[in-house]
Amino acid sequence: MKDQTTLNKTPLIAITGQPNTGKTTLFNQLSGKKFKTVNYPGSTVEYSISKILSKYAVNANILDSPGIISLLPVSPDEELSVQTLFKHPEHGTPDIIAVTVDASQLSRNLYLVRQLINSGFNVVVILTMLDLLHKKGFDISDKKLSEILKCDVVRVNSKTGEGIDNFLTSVNKSILQLSKLSENNSVTGHFPVSRENLLKSYTEIEQIEKDVIFNTGISETFKETDLDKINKELIVLNSPGSFQKPDEFTLKLDKFVLHKFWGLIIFFLTMLIMFTSVFYIAAPAMDLVNDAFSLWSENASDIVGDNWYGNLISQGIISGVGSVMVFLPQILILFLILSLLENSGFLARGAMIIDKPLSKIGLNGKSFVPMLSGFACAIPAMMATRTITNKKERMLTIFIIPLMSCSARLPVYALLIAFLIPKDDALTGGLILTLIYIFSIASSLVIAAVVNKFSKSFLNTNDNSSFILELPAYRKPKLTAAVTSMFSNAKQYVLKAGPVILYLSIILWVLTYLPNYDPVVNENGKSEDEIVMLKNSERIATSYASEIGYFIEPVMKPLGLDWRVGVALIATFAAREVFVSSLMVILKLLIQRKTIKVLF
Amino acid sequence: MKTAADMKIGEKARIEDIDNSHPSSHRLMEIGFTPGQEIEMLNKTLFNDPIAFSIRGSIIAIRKNEAASIII
Ligand SMILES: Nc1nc2c(ncn2[C@@H]2O[C@H](COP(=O)(O)OP(=O)(O)OP(=O)(O)O)[C@@H](O)[C@H]2O)c(=O)[nH]1
Ligand SMILES: [Mg+2]
Q1: Fewest beta carbons within 10 Å, which of A81, A127, A440, B71?
Q2: Is A365 buried (19+), middle (13-18) or exposed (0-12) by CB count in 10 A?
Q3: Is the beta carbon of A91 within 6 A of some atom in ligand 1?
């Protein structure tokens, strides 16, 4: 009860709006959070709440939600948004609804705005993407729009933060009115949904659009051309409805990217380059990390000395953690490329190109983006399937996402490749990694096809299978933004995996070094190296780990594996990313420069 | 009866009606495909499905069977 009253005191501002209109970008500005912003409609699939940063001096909570086309949801992400708007489970109905409106696509965006106003919400309209409208040579009169809609209209560039103060002024004003009105919940949730009403609404919106959009003269694209061209352009501009032309550059680029044949080739080349560069670009950085950790490990054992705790620190902790950190560069590169792809606008095109083939095996073009993010991490990827309308297609996509080789599995592959391929043969290594990726895609598709074939009996939904996707205007991906997102992703990976790897490295050290730390071996006529090797193998053969390993060997034998892999697998239950460090400690793999040698 | 699915690349047309019987018809109208609007067919994939249209200043890709419910 107490909680509820305190929560009720802080006003809740919900950001909503059509997909890809800059909601999350604005939310990040206001809350200081770093949620993913992607040039793809449907990037946010979960709501998040945060306090507005104290520097803005507004005492309110702000809520980000998945984009919606209308208040009539057709997919789980939209359902979640609409539910949040009408009755948030914890915070109740939001006090203020801030609707982002893509100014370069005014009429399509106003449809939702009017539905929200008609439902009785306290609406503030935020005009975003004005830079794109200016590029077309047009602008919006926010004053007129505000008069017509009878609500505040503010211009904000959520990327630069320009105009956020206008928004906050409007919010403050509304909050004051709220306290006067006190509990006045007039939200009805009743809005007309019939075809007649929809068409009437759009007719009215078209009139509003004509009233508020005006020509600023010459479109920026044509600034530097000669007079003749400008004259020609003016004639076009003066014809009614020419602001309803998509972005010029996007249309040109799509001639290639969505070309019948070139489109497919560009698509597959992009995917291929993505997976090969993960190996090639990362290789030098991996060497560096590896050298650093081996140096560190040697130093540690020099300082602490050759005793059991020195060994624990150098072999157990530093080498264990190092064996996983070596693969951080690969993961960084993967995230960097994904983020560049995400921000360019290519993802929506990829989804369109691949829709037909995927629909043949029971998936959807909208499965593409979740599958792609499955290469980074499986759980957010599964959540991203919420944008898929059809239940069966959604379930099938979730089903195959674990088959995508997620970034945590990269170390395992890289280790095995390094193990199987002769040193200095990076070319073959990269090829094999690419093949592993292709294989993981191919196997997931085959499995989807098979399940799809036999699923009719247990997944009989007669949902409409649909693919309606806005292809957003291309944007030059900003390298700084991509690098920032890469590092925040990597940080999460390290923070999540780091402690687990550390503890497991210690536990594994204990399991593999004890109880027989200094075994007695027959030293007669053997060199020093041989004695060390003998001791090592004797120690592990009598260790706790071997006991566990022998215990589960009956299960591992049929798979062609012995107790050593069994122990590594047990450790892996905690986190996929520790498989390598477990195997490393257990097999006592020594990484010496690029070579990996097995000691016994 | 000609539909948006029959259009050629670069062809423009005015929407006459939306076939109510198609399950996606309401969503198509919500997203902006309303009678009276001018559309331009922009791109097709190799399989002629989906198809990208220019509508109300946006580019929107829809399946061929959905385009077939847009009567021009
Ligand atoms: N040119 C321009 N781009 C913007 C502006 N605001 C945001 N963007 C970009 O638009 C894209 C979409 O932004 P998001 O904040 O992810 O949009 P969203 O509304 O949260 O999208 P969904 O979660 O998919 O509904 C990103 O690539 C942003 O960088 C703006 O004012 N101008
Ligand atoms: Mg978002």
Answers
A1: B71
A2: buried
A3: no
Q: Does A265 lie at the interface with B, CB-CB under 8 angstroms?
A: no
Q: CB of A50 within 8 A of CB of A121?
A: no
- Same domain, residue pair A408 and A495: no
Touching check for A39 and chain B: CB below 8 Å? no
Q: What is the ipTM of this complex?
A: 0.96
Judged against a pLDDT cut of 50, whether residue A589 lies above it is answered with: no
Among A360, A468, A470, most B C-beta atoms within 10 A, so best to mutate, is: A468
Domain assignment present for residue A23? The answer is: yes
Per-residue pLDDT of A423-464, as tens digits, reads 556 567 777 878 888 888 899 999 998 888 887 666 555 667
End-to-end CA distance of chain B: 8
What type of residue is A20?
N
- Based on the fold, state whether residues A58 and A192 are members of the same structural domain: yes
**Start-end of H helices in A164-226:** 164-181, 195-212
Nearest to B57 among A104, A264, A352 (CB): A104
CATH number assigned to the domain with residue range B4-71, chosen from the 4 options 3.30.390.50, 3.90.1150.10, 2.30.30.90, 3.40.50.970? 2.30.30.90
The predicted structure's pLDDT at residue A338: 85
* Binary contact (B30, A264; C-beta < 8 A): no
pLDDT for residue A598 is more than 50? no
- pLDDT for res A154: 94
User: From CA A424, how far away is CA A454, in angstroms rounded?
Assistant: 46
Burial A394-425 (b: 16+ CB within 10 A, else e): bbbbbbbbebbbbbbbbbbbbbebbeebeeee
Express as a percent the part of chain A with pLDDT over 70: 75
Question: Is the CB of A74 inside 8 Å of chain B's CB atoms?
Answer: yes
Tally of domains within chain A: 3
What are the DSSP calls for A243-297, one per residue? GGS--HHHHHHHHHHT-TTHHHHHHHHHHHHHHHHHHHTHHHHHHHHHHHHHHHH
A244 in any annotated domain: no
Count of residues in chain B = 72
